[in-house]
Structure formats: structure tokens, C-alpha cells
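Protocol step 4 of 6: record predicted structures for both targets in the notebook before any analysis. Target 1:
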Amino acid sequence: MISIIIPLYNKQNCIERAIKSVLSQTFTDFELLVINDGSTDQSDEIVKEIKDNRLILINKQNGGVSTARNKGVDAAKGEWIIFLDADDYFLPTCIDTLYKTAITYKVNVAAANFYIEINGKKKLACYGNKEKIIRNNFAAWYLGLFCPRTGAAIFRRELLLKYSFREDLQRYEDAESLFNIMRNNLIAYTPVPVMSYTQDYNHLSKLHNNLSKDYIGCLIFDNKSFSEKLLLTSLLEQGFCIYPSKTKYLKLKYKHFLYLLPINKSITFVIRCLRKIKLLGIFNIFF
């Protein structure tokens, strides 16, 4: 069995779409756990109206998305787990594609391509064009060849029990768990798109003013590979933009790794150029 986990908090306008995209999958041996994280709108009532014996609603006090995901993992009966955000939705063969990829390559993690949807318009997110085991997880992610995005990746439950999500963070709360998993596991990838990531501009434009609740405030560069350090540097660059008043603090905190900033800028410039001329796929040969 596969367990699908949807954390739910005040998503009454889209939770029905997310749930129905799961219930209409070609793969049918699954349970769907909707973890209601103390919603104050009608989200839970909408879930209750959907009748399917594979759908389980679990209510809890509000504690953040990580607490909801961790509770879902604890309650899950499946050997495999796929997360889905309430404002995103699966394509019909999502579970089938991810599960078959993991089983075919005998790995504990599999990822797939997905769509980024903005105002109804979709574009593919990843530039990886071959099904295979990723040779360098962090380099491939950094280059945009694949992305272990929520809804487009499947994990053995035992990994998520070992590397649970940090409940003290509110932004990039899943990063540390993902980094730990990627550092220690082979990942199989398929270029088949399996879900649609719906960008919510109201959420993206929300002001962030608490660096202590952001993974950017607790990055650890020591003893990491060069490609993982580049990913961390990309997050640090975001921190300068999101927390301009904390720039001095961040530069002091990560002063021993500021040499990576010009390297990151140079590489990202090259990546953007290769994307424009549609040559980024050349890196599929190496990573």
C-alpha cells in the first residue's frame, strides 16, 4: 500500500480538487490521509462531504505543516509515502509512475517531472530528459535537472521516520529532511510529469520577517559536498533579498563561505543562458 498525505490548513477553495485528483488515480491500492492542521475555514467540512473508504481525515491543533506531515507519517500504514500540498493536484498516473520508477530501479526514493502552473498556464519544471538513477543528487537539483518537490516524489516510510520534518521552522521546513535523505540515498528519476504545482502569489508575496523560523537562518556548510554547498548558497542569496535588514547578520554568520557567492552567480548565469538556447539538457550526460 501507498500512503498519500495532504496537510490541510484553510484551503477550502482548492482541497476538493487535490483530493479528487488522488481518488481518480489509475493506481488504486492507497490510503489518503488528510491532516487538518486546525483549519478555521470550511476545509474540514468539504473533506467530510467526500465519500471514499480510502480517505481518512485526521484533525489536530494548529502547529504548522511539518507537524501535519510528521503526524501523517506516524499514522500511515503504507510502505511508501507521497506528500501533496492542498493547493496542488496529481495527474492521473502520478502514483503509478512514481511507484513503478522506484520499484524498477530498486531505490528508496523516486522523483518525476511536474508542471508549474501560473494563472492556468503550465510549463515543465525540470530539464532532465532521461529516466535513470541520478548520479549526483545535489548537482542535478542545482542545475534544474530534477527536483524532489512535494507531490512529485515518493519515499519509503522508514526514511521519513528517520529524517522527520523540523517543526520549529515555518519556511523551507522540509529542506533539512530532504538534504539528509539526498545525501544518503540513490534517487531514480523519470521525466514523465506527474502533478501540477500551482503557484499561489498571495502566499509567495507574504512578508517574511522571522529569520529564526527560516531554514536560511540555520544553514550548515561544514563537511558538505561542493554541489550541496552551492544549493545552500542559493538559499543564502534568497535570504539577502527576503531579509534585507538581516544581510549584515547573514554575512557575518556565514562569513567563511561567502567566497561561494560569486561562484554561484557565475554558474547560475551560465545555466540561464543554456536554458534560453535549450542546451541545459547537455548536463544529463554527467549528472
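Target 2:
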Amino acid sequence: MKVFVILIFVLITLIAGLNYSQSSINYDAGTNMEIQSGADVCADAINVNGSYSGTGTICQGALPVLLSSFTSSANKNNITLSWTTEAEINNKGFDIERKELKDKALWKKAGFVQGNGTINEQKKYLFEDKKLNTGKYSYRLKQIDYNGGYEYFNLENDVTVSAPGNFSISQNYPNPSNPRSKIDYELPFKGKLSIIIYDILGKEIISLVNEVNVGGYYTAEFDRSNLSSGVYFYRITAEGGTQNFSRTLKMILVK
């Protein structure tokens, strides 16, 4: 007589008590197995001698976590990813992979978030992908177990980093600096941009940036190891069509 097996949830309880490195599930000849949508059957070895139907999945090796949500939000050129698991087995963690949606773009690792091993309770995760260029991006999680197996979870929507709506420039950081420093700025239009460093007497010391930029988010970096300690100023100027912007800020160098 055929045995009809219907699996309607992840069989965590079935395999949680086994030694994961040697777990196995066997379905004898004549078994008629149906795995419904959203269900997974996972173990190191699965032997199915009967028939198999349904839209669920069978996987060998990696035991996927039970992921209940995976969402994104964007703030300027920073993207925040959040996801929730309801249960995890042998979960080492998640590689966060990003792909910019343009010609010949490839998936790239953006970071890693540690998992919780084996746990049967809800866990929330968060990852911030900062200072991205303008454009549209896809994301996916690569869940990795301690045996090296893995499974992908794709974010359903693409995320867009739009050009800024207003011009903005940050205070250099760190400030005081010794001797390297950075300046973030946002350009809402295409135009010629310059950043010039002056000493306290108003003498030009360094022309840090002098180029045409499209609208977007930028970071200027500079090394003042050849300058003496003291107070300096930097002036940023942007011109494009009928739009223009200028601002002067103070910086301190301490050696």
C-alpha cells in the first residue's frame, strides 16, 4: 500500500534531534510524496525511491533558515536591509550580495551578518549599505551553514539611489585630523566643482578637486602630512547652468 506524505511546513523538528553532519531522510519504494508550496525538506542525504510532486523544495546539504520577511529602505545614498527568521538550523550567517542594474553588472559581496546557529525562535537582522553611487540595485542574502552549504534569498524589489535634491557639504572628518581627512558633498546638478584649501592668511595651499561632476554623492579625500599643525579653511564652489553654490568651512590639523 502506498504511503501518502504531505509536508506543510519546514521539517525542523524532524531533523533537529539528529546529528546534522550525518542527517538523512529515506522514502521507501512506492512512497508518494507531496511537498506543498513554502515547505522545505533538507538533510545531508535524502533518498526518494517513490514519486515526488508539489511546489515545495528538497535540498541536500544546507539547511535553510525559515525566512519570514526581507525588506529594504533608502535614505539618500544609504540602503538599509532588514530580515526576520522564525527558526534556524546550523546557520553560520548571511553574506549580503549586491548587484547594480547596469550592463554586465555582477553580484558583489557587500558585507556579512553573523547567524544564530540552531535556534527555534524569531530573530531580526539589520544591514546598512552606505555611501552608494546613484543607480538601481538588487540585493540577495546568501545563507551559509557551518558545513559550507548555502541557499539564496532574493529581495523582491529593486532599490533606487536617486540624485540629491539640494547641494550639501559636510564638515571634514575627523576634525581635528592627523593628517588624513575626508569631505562628503552632494551635487544636485551637473556642473564644475572645486574644493580649495587655504591657510589662516588666505593663501591657497591645495586644489583638492577641480572637475566637472554629474549630480550625485561624492567624497573627497586628502592627506595633509606635509602641512604643519594649525587652522585651515576649505572652500567649495559649484556652478552649473543657472545654478551655483559656494561655502567655506574651517578645519584643524593636529600632529
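Step 5 preliminary note on target 2. The chain has a mean pLDDT of 82. The chain has three domains: 4-60, 66-161, 168-253.
Proceed to step 6 after PI sign-off.
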